[in-house]
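Notes, p. 3: input format for complexes.
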Amino acid sequence: MSVPGIRDEILKARAYVAGKTIEEVKRDYGLTDVIKLGSNENPYAPFPAARQAMIDEIERINEYPDASFRDLRAMIGSRFGRDAASIAIGHGAGGILETIAATFLRTGDEVILPTQSYGLYREISKVAGAVVREVALNEHYTIDPDAMREAITDQTKLVWLCNPNNPTGTIIDVAAYERLRDALPPNAWLVVDEAYAEFAAEENLPATARDLDTHNVIIVRTFSKAYGLAGGRIGYAVARPQLITVIDTVSEPFNANRIGIAGARACLSDDWDVIQSTRARICSSRSYLEDALVRRGLTVTPTHTNFVFFESRFDAERLADVMLRNGVIVRSAAAWGYPKHTRVTIGTEDENETFLQTLDNALVQLAEE
Ligand SMILES: Cc1ncc(COP(=O)(O)O)c(C=O)c1O
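Output follows (369 residues plus pyridoxal-5'-phosphate):
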């Protein structure tokens, strides 16, 4: 039965499809050992100071957090050479993206987004009543900012750019980013979602932070990936202070919780060094995994993230299902329009070995079917 009173725009949106949890897979498939390489989380977290800070913070959970998130904003700001006024905190990068959509979009506005990218951009834009213009990735599975630039019209309000891109792991051409940035009409904004930026080499990424005062650019980042706080739900925007004030006005008050905030503060202070070494460890496992997949005759797209996007000759949904039944959660890229591609998150060294063994068995099984 339909729900009376719902806005028409919402009827056009689809719910975000999250990856399966370990608990779900254990229950549904009767398994005791399951590894999750499906949601691009950090396998080494929580980090020690963050863990302790979050445990300690439990004692204050009856109190609302400091609604201005002053300390954390100042700590993040200093990493970008800016002060607290340039940072907005939200309930994950997802919460920040949603607030950005609510800040800018009204019915009939146009947004431009890459077809094969993080799915939330499309749905939050539709919920706001925007007209979605999609631009396909190029043949290298990379977002083409020039093609996005060509889609700009007078009605364009937001351009959603995921860099590095999920699910393909690729990064955009810096010069093409600059052309896109420079082509925005005066009322349009470029939202650069850098959820995976910590895993990319800095010299390969556009220096977006330099553009915040001179162009309509917003950076979105998260503590869910490199910092290992996906369950703590802390994301942030970096933008010019006037826009941050507006974002804070639109978003709900207390839109981040005490536990997550405590964890994030520890990540940027006492855990900083261990997080940097873990990041290097994940990047070295990434090279190992890329090589191992290539050696198996699979086609690997060079990645700048904590996941690898690869192609086999088999149906990716079937491959993911066989892997799942054997206790390894990976993500088929069929829903993004890549029926033979799989996305696997880089796990611990042991998890990566288990993944490779399970993959070998699955490939043999699929070849025999
Ligand atoms: C590109 C991208 N942006 C944003 C998010 C959302 O992150 P958060 O956990 O901070 O909401 C994700 C999560 O996977 C992502 O891949």
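The first helix runs from residue 8 to 11.
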